[in-house]
Amino acid sequence: MLEVRNLVVRYGGITALNSVSITVPKTETVILVGANGAGKSSLINAIIGMVPISEGSIVLNGTDLGKILPYDRANQGIGYSPEGRRVFPTMTVRDNVLAGASRLGRAGQSAIYEKLADLFPMLEERANHYAGFLSGGQQQMVAIARAMSASPRLLLLDEPFLGLAPVWIEQISKAIRAFRAEGVTVLMTEQMAVPALKVATSGYVMRTGHILRQGTVDELRSTALEEEYL
Ligand code: ATP
């Protein structure tokens, strides 16, 4: 579904990604594991067009994303939940989530909201609360639900577990599995290899702009990832 080939991303003199290639097959959940500065966010941001590609290509379902302007990439079926969540703090939970569904009519928005609330009950309980007052785990759910409200085929999650207590990680993992069961393809980054390997089907280990290892979850689990690489 998604093919990243020999991708190079530079910020001035800094090379953040140095010829990175990954494949994300349809309906799989692929993780990019790596420590701070490995280049995980740069890869996600290159896919959505937030950082320019210096070399290489990103092809989604046969479409070269490098030829599509960033604001048109959402039309390609890409949903994105950023690192650090970035919810709109003075908007309600419901308005945050439906910010991703502005193209739907009122009935369509209600239907998608109900569907997402089945996965994240707090969306129902806190619908009218300001997102800025929520806990980190709840804000993460709002950010993921916002990305899913546009019904993407490819969901990009940048460090969805960062700083969260195990109880929230478990709920978010359950939702990611449910998305996959519905046919959504997921690419997620994580520093926390252990919980990420529980939701993924395959993955890549990154360090300083390179892919160090790749494999199925079982293959990656058999190595002491965190000790060796992170
Ligand atoms: P983190 O978990 O900290 O976000 P990461 O694996 O996502 O780490 P990136 O954020 O992609 O890594 O950073 C990769 C490299 O690029 C790092 O050396 C970082 O300092 C550098 N970098 C990232 N963004 C910029 C920027 N806007 N300008 C200059 N250098 C940057």
UniProtKB/TrEMBL annotation:
- On whether Iron is a keyword of this UniProt record, the answer is no
Kindly give the InterPro entries that the UniProt entry links to this protein.
AAA+_ATPase, ABC_transporter-like_ATP-bd, ABC_transporter-like_CS, BCAA_Transport_ATP-bd_LivF, P-loop_NTPase
- Keyword Cytoplasm in annotation: no
Q: Which UniProt keywords apply?
A: Amino-acid transport, ATP-binding, Cell membrane, Membrane, Nucleotide-binding, Transport
Query: A GO biological process this protein is involved in?
Result: L-amino acid transport
SMART domains given for it?
A: AAA (SM00382)
Kindly list the residue ranges recorded as spanning the membrane: none
Q: Which residues form the ABC transporter domain?
A: 2-230
Q: What molecular function does GO assign, one term?
A: branched-chain amino acid transmembrane transporter activity
Which superkingdom is the protein from? Bacteria
The family line of this record is: Belongs to the ABC transporter superfamily.
The protein here is known as Amino acid/amide ABC transporter ATP-binding protein 2, HAAT family
